[in-house]
Amino acid sequence: MKHLLTLKDLSGETILELIRLGESVKRFPESYSEALKNKVLAMIFQKTSTRTRMSFEAGMAQLGGHAIYLDWCTTNLTVGHLQDEVRCMGRYANAITARVDNHRTLRQMARVSEIPVINALSDRFHPCQALGDLLTIKEKTGRLSGLKLAYVGDGNNVCNSLIIACTAVGMRISVATPSGYEPLPEAVNAARKSGLLQLGKDPVKAVRGADIVYTDTWVSLGHEEESKERLKVFPPYQVNSKLLGKSRPFIMHCLPAHRGYEITDEVMDGPQSVVFDQAENRLHAQKALLLGLLK
User: Of 75, 109, 181, 249, which has the fewest Cβ atoms less than 10 A away?
Assistant: First the structure.
């Protein structure tokens, strides 16, 4: 594993190994406190961030290393050639994590980089989020294989990565999206052979029998100009008490949440919500990923 641009880059067993390492890192943090001593992570951000930035930065500090935050607009990434800037970063850092507008940017970086490049979010995939999600599910249920996750809402980058992640580790995933907002064919095709993916339009059908119900914002970063139209299309996909009925699945959301839109306060703050444990586990899963790439 040299780079992580999408979870298609990893086998199911490698994903499970990272989850097990994440569990160990979380349980025994002192055992890893100097594991990446003197290692440096360059963190490039073309988009806004809370959890991704904090979890990577805190993770490097807790592993004994250091992270350097680089805002895309205040560096020479805006004026120089991308390949030149990336090659220079490789002389200063041991790995690069990048949160970018376009997935092609990550591919360009990985082609010229002699150090690992990690996708911290692109328009197509969000693999680090999915790793943290699997760690949370394993923590709450004790297993992954055989469970059912229902994803309701926009077939966005998070949905794409969840499809790949869940089916790789033996989880069923049922996705309900409006017409025109389906997940990427690239993600769907990667999961088809598993027989564990179900696609549809009906959120009620999707959540039936689910162990976990997952949603995300209806208007992802980069789609703000579509807000008016999306807010007309997505209300039937709100995760609320009516949709859940008498079932008691764990509730997940990658945050930031738009309360009253894709999810109600009642569900978000309810006893089955694991949203904030999920946010914390970004830290532990990413520490495992950094160890896997750098140690």
Answer: 75
Question: For this structure, is 238 an active site residue?
Answer: no
Task: State the DSSP string of the chain.
Answer: ---BSSGGGS-HHHHHHHHHHHHHHHH-GGGGTTTTTT-EEEEEESS--SHHHHHHHHHHHHTT-EEEEEEGGGSGGGTS-HHHHHHHHHHH-SEEEEE-S-HHHHHHHHHH-SS-EEEEE-SS--HHHHHHHHHHHHHHHS--TT-EEEEES---HHHHHHHHHHHHTT-EEEEE--TT-PPPHHHHHHHHTTT-EEEES-HHHHHTT-SEEEE--SS-TT-GGGHHHHHHHSGGG-B-HHHHTT---EEEE-S---BTTTB-HHHHTSTTB-HHHHHHHHHHHHHHHHHHHH-
Catalytic residue among 3, 46, 62, 99: 99
pLDDT tens-digit readout, 25-70: 999 999 999 999 999 999 999 999 999 999 999 999 999 999 999 9
Active site residue: 51, 124, 253, 282, which one?
282
208 is catalytic: no
Q: Is 104 a catalytic residue?
A: no
Annotated catalytic residue within 3, 126, 172, 230: 126
CATH of 129-278, one of 3.40.50.1370, 1.20.1090.10, 2.30.42.10, 3.40.1190.20: 3.40.50.1370
Tell me whether residue 129 is one of the annotated catalytic residues. yes
Q: Active site includes 81?
A: no
For residue 224, what pLDDT band results from cuts at 50, 70 and 90? confident
The answer to whether 126 is a known catalytic residue is yes
CATH class, domain 7-126+282-294, is alpha beta
Which residue of the set 129, 238, 278, 286 is catalytic?
129
